[in-house]
Design a protein that fits this description.
Blueprint lengths: L26 H12 L6 H17 L7 H35 L3
Helix pairs in contact: 1-2, 1-3, 2-3
Length: 106
């Protein structure tokens, strides 16, 4: 009788196909800029947003899928959040300056 063994228990290594496509070279840069923009350096928000948007346009114009597209989208989203925080900080600063000038608050 032939000994049957479950394929998962075989001694032969199994290989799973990895993602097919190419990596966009700015994926890591966009993630780092986005994380920094959200984590306390909101001045980098517009930079992350801009670089990620440009990288996504480049990725969409290339034939074949981009493996790290999620990095580009996440970096762009964090750049948008950082830009919103920056805009809020500028608005608070301008309001504070106006209040000081109008009412002489020191």
């Amino acid at each position: 009788m032939e000994h049957l063994q479950h394929p998962a228990l075989s001694a032969e290594p199994t290989s799973f196909p990895g993602p097919t496509g190419h990596h966009h070279p700015r994926g890591t840069l966009v993630i780092v800029l986005g994380v920094l923009a959200v984590a306390g350096v909101p001045v980098l928000g517009p930079v992350a947003w801009s670089v990620a948007s440009r990288a996504l346009r480049e990725a969409d114009s290339q034939p074949g899928p981009v493996v790290n597209r999620g990095q580009l989208v996440a970096g762009r989203t964090m750049g948008m959040i950082g830009t919103a925080v920056l805009a809020l900080m500028v608005a608070v600063f301008v309001a504070t300056v106006i209040l000081v000038v109008l009412f002489g608050i020191e």
